[in-house]
Fold these 2 entries.
Entry 1:
Amino acid sequence: MTISDQDLINAAKDARDNAYCHYSGFAVGAAIIDDNGHLYVGCNVENAAYPLGNCAEAAAIAAMVLEGGKRIDRIAVVGGSGDPGPCTPCGGCRQRIQEFADENTVIIAMDDSKDWQRYSIAELLPAGFHLDL
């Protein structure tokens, strides 16, 4: 079964509903499809001892790695206070995505016009840091 972009966005929205964001009020959900077609989700979890919280993308990536996933095929990020609004991954999460991305990885996020956009990691993180292992 293939998961559509809209299904991936909906999974990120559902994850967002469980975000623990009592301090910022900015709930974020992320949903990943790995290179084997498996779905992983995560939400942000804040902490009173800032910055000890976790980003939604980091949580979804950790779930993927825990289950043996190696590469992100697509990731959807949904965030905002109240209704979903513009929210691309933060700088740290762009680097986290870079670690598990390739030139075909698609990042789906809402832009400032409130339209869903498909980005490559190179568009969101030009000249991103990586190690050649």
Entry 2:
Amino acid sequence: MKINLKLIAPVIVWLVLYLIPIPEGLKANQWHYFAIFAAVITGLVLESMPVGAVGLIGLTFAAVMGYVEPDPNKSLRWALSGFSESTVWLIVGAFIFAIGYRKSGLGKRIALLLVRALGRRTLGLGYAVMLSDLVLAPATPSNTARSGGTIYPIVSNIPKIFGSEPGPTAGKIGTYVMWTAFASTAVTSSLFLTALAPNAAALAIAKKTTNVDISWSQWFVGFAPLGILLLILVPLLSYLICRPEIKESPEVVTWANAELKRMGPLTRNEWVMSGLVILAMFLWITGSNPNISLPYLGANYINATMVVLVIISLLLITRVVDFADIVAEKSAWEVLFYFTSLLTLSSGLNEIGFIRWVAELFAKPLAGTSATVALVALVALFFWIHYFFSSITSHAAAVLPVVLAVGMSVPGVSAPLLTMLCCYSLGLMGVISPYATGPAPMYFGSGFIGKRDFWKFGLIFGLIYFAGLIVIVLPWLKFVG
């Protein structure tokens, strides 16, 4: 009988962690819960089973054992809590948006326009994708809505034009295009204060903790040297790391032009889809701002996920999308189970106090170090501990106060410097894993980026982004500050 090492590896990780002595400062339920979380991550990395199955099994086991909530009824409610998270449904909604782009033909038309304009070289397409995200970023506070709801449905049509599909042919150009889109949104999310909702939340936390207040312009100026450089480099770095098989294709420009002529003028469904996309963008920009009154909606605020539900309803009413199409969208439902499980499991680490223990454990040795070493170490802890999280908002709420408080206890550490470096890292850290930020599960579930490649690319780009924070942003902030 052949032993499936990939299948038993997560069990071995769980068993080893379960059996070793519980570290000082932790209770049995905290350590045993972490053992389950580590086993789930191992299963995801090794692809032991479909990702949704790995997450669901781990979540069910944690709930049955009552590690977070000892009461069985409360434990069940905890296990199901992720299904009510707005981010989860925002992600599912983005997949349904993609159906609308695909069925109406609008996605193909926009993809053909991009190919006709910049498709002569593969690298040019990468810059077109990056610029698309950059244009939308300052006014779209949800990177899931921006990258997942707008960019992803469009760029997912580009590889097919070049004969690149999920699976064996993904490497032709699909892997490159999709990774460039994902890596770009991590940068734009940090470049603008208003490009990622947790940015503002983190600043609010920092103001209460360190009394540091940062304006929109201060935020942009502080990160601009690295942000602009990364936006220039990301398409090129992705090109070098993903190594697309198709380097240039001059004939595809002629073909794209002929295809556009064959498609003719916009159809009724394309016009409807265009109007709904514009409506979604308008509501994401204005309706997601509590300071803008929207009395015609019967409320002063409309959540980004509610916008998605409104647009999906209109897609169904206008028959651009049929309900059968939604039911048949396998990727959306796989991501629903996968991301819901990971979101709940990672939030459980915070709920039981494990994250605070880790932060304090790593912070203690810093008491006797120099201010610069302490500063870099705290930023590193804040950045890389995100492997334990699937929500940037919960990461900021759980870890930022601890890191800032520890930093303030080390003589010579600058509160503004530590605050800005931690806040700038929120968008960048979204690149490190398939669950690190809202758009990640969409690109992960697209099939164009292999599971192992996603982890590998995430680590490479995470190291580059983190190095940029320390090597470029830190000296720059000292210079301008």
